[in-house]
């Protein structure tokens, strides 16, 4: 009798183990996988964003000389703090623009 019970008991244990494995895999698929997928997706988006920012930074560094020169030009071409001198430069600028563009200005009121 013992010999007959052993294969049935082993079969029952095997079926219990297979059932537990299937339930465990189902739980992993439904409970653990979705948050992990979301985390990986967020991580990939962050990596892509950081790569784009690095690319933009490298581009800015390559244009550094031009940007600095342009900034210096902008700083040196500002109007003076003295209001009358600033007004004088502005009127001269209008006159120069009118001559260059062949536009006649009838009136300029400061």
What secondary-structure arrangement, pairings included, does this model have?
Elements (H helix, E strand, L loop, with lengths): L1 H61 L1 H13 L6 H19 L9
Your description of this structure?
It contains three helices and no strands. It has helices at about 1-60, 65-75, 85-100. The chain is rod-shaped, with a radius of gyration of 39 Å. The N and C termini lie far apart (about 120 Å).
Give the biggest sheet: none
Number of strands: 0
**CA distance, first residue to last residue:** 118 Å
Note the overall shape.
Answer: rod-shaped
- Provide mean pLDDT, rounded: 87
- Compressed to H and E, one letter per element, the order equals HHH
Give start-end ranges of low-pLDDT stretches: none
Strand content: under 5%
Question: Which class of secondary structure composition applies to the elements?
Answer: mainly alpha
Computed over alpha carbons, the radius of gyration is 39 Å
What share of residues is helical?
over 70%
Total helical segments: 3
Concise structural overview:
The protein is mainly alpha-helical.
Give the tags:
110 residues, mainly alpha, 3 helices, 0% strand
